[in-house]
């Protein structure tokens, strides 16, 4: 297995097994340079979002990388201020323009239940309407695959009542501290790939003694052990860094294996770091 190896999605499309995350990567030279570094290090899967505010610079980095478009996998996401079919359709075109791309490999609903619509149209109608726009964008050749992020089981159940195209992924806050077992099991049962954002937590996990000990045993960094755990669990991790040496390190995951004992120990680290927010309560 290597960075360019792929999972097969439920629509038959291929997605590289590790993605390069860009959340909190500032727009401008930093974002552009980090994408170039990632592509030079072998990453072929770039993940961004409209709300990150860095799509333009991500697009510049892609353009300057010298890699053919068909050899890259690019994801972006629909933010919460788009609650109608028309708004979602316009948002897709805006992201394509900012990224400088003719098509997106993957487009996600970023958040299942925006606070602004909870007491008005409700998440069921909003998600159904924007999903319809995303489906039409697939039919128009603007997007190859569509999916979701931060969705719990009841959000997915509601979406599936009207969806004509199934979500291919559900991107979740997943790491040893918060494994979201129930929704991961639901994803698996419905052939939805689980993507893991913040796969290293929010920094707290790198100093957890049990993880440090496993890393020392394998001659790897703690970050590499956590990312390898994510891969061996069948997730698709999206590590983020702007430091070239860390970018390289985070992709160097394919010359060692964690033992069953290692996996069991890491599985037991619930609460060792931050936990996810309830998407029906947090104020996005």
Describe this structure in a few short sentences.
Helix content is 39%, strand content 15%. By secondary structure, it is an alpha/beta fold.
Structural write-up:
- This protein is globular.
- 47% of the residues are buried.
- The strands form 2 sheets. Strands 3-4-5-6-7-8-9-10 form an 8-stranded parallel sheet. The chain has a two-stranded antiparallel sheet with strand order 1-2.
- It is of the alpha/beta class and 284 residues long.
- The chain has helices at residues 29-40, 55-65, 85-99, 122-139, 153-160, 181-189, 209-218, 222-232, 244-251, 260-267; strands at 6-8, 14-16, 20-21, 45-47, 73-78, 104-109, 143-149, 169-173, 193-197, 236-238.
- The mean pLDDT is 97.
How is this fold's topology laid out?
Layout: E1 6-8, E2 14-16, E3 20-21, H1 29-40, E4 45-47, H2 55-65, E5 73-78, H3 85-99, E6 104-109, H4 122-139, E7 143-149, H5 153-160, E8 169-173, H6 181-189, E9 193-197, H7 209-218, H8 222-232, E10 236-238, H9 244-251, H10 260-267
Parallel strand pairs: 3-4, 4-5, 5-6, 6-7, 7-8, 8-9, 9-10
Antiparallel strand pairs: 1-2
């Amino acid at each position: 297995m290597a960075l360019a190896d792929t999972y097969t999605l439920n629509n038959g499309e291929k997605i590289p097994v590790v993605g390069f995350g860009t959340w909190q990567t500032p727009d401008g030279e930093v974002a552009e340079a980090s994408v170039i570094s990632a592509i030079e290090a072998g990453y072929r899967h770039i993940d961004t979002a409209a709300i990150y505010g860095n799509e333009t610079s991500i697009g510049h980095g892609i353009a300057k990388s010298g890699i053919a478009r068909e050899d890259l996998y690019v994801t972006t996401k629909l933010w919460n201020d788009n609650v109608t079919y028309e708004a979602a359709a316009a948002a897709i075109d805006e992201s394509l323009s900012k990224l400088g791309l003719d098509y997106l490999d993957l487009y996600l609903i970023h958040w299942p239940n925006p606070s602004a619509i909870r007491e008005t149209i409700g998440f069921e109608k909003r998600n159904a309407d924007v999903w319809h726009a995303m489906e039409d964008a697939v039919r128009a050749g603007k997007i190859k695959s569509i999916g979701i992020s931060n969705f719990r089981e009841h959000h997915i159940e509601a979406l599936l009542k009207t969806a004509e195209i199934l979500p291919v992924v559900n991107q979740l806050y997943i790491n040893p501290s918060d494994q979201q077992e129930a929704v991961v099991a639901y994803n698996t049962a419905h052939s939805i790939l689980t993507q893991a954002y913040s796969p290293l937590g929010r920094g707290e996990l790198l100093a957890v003694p049990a993880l440090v000990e496993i890393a020392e045993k394998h001659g790897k960094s703690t970050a590499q052990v956590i990312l390898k755990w994510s891969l061996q669990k069948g997730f698709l991790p999206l590590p983020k860094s702007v430091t070239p040496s860390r970018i390289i390190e985070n992709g160097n995951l394919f010359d060692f294996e964690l033992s069953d004992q290692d996996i069991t120990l890491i599985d037991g680290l619930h609460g060792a770091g931050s936990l996810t927010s309830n998407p029906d309560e947090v104020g996005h």
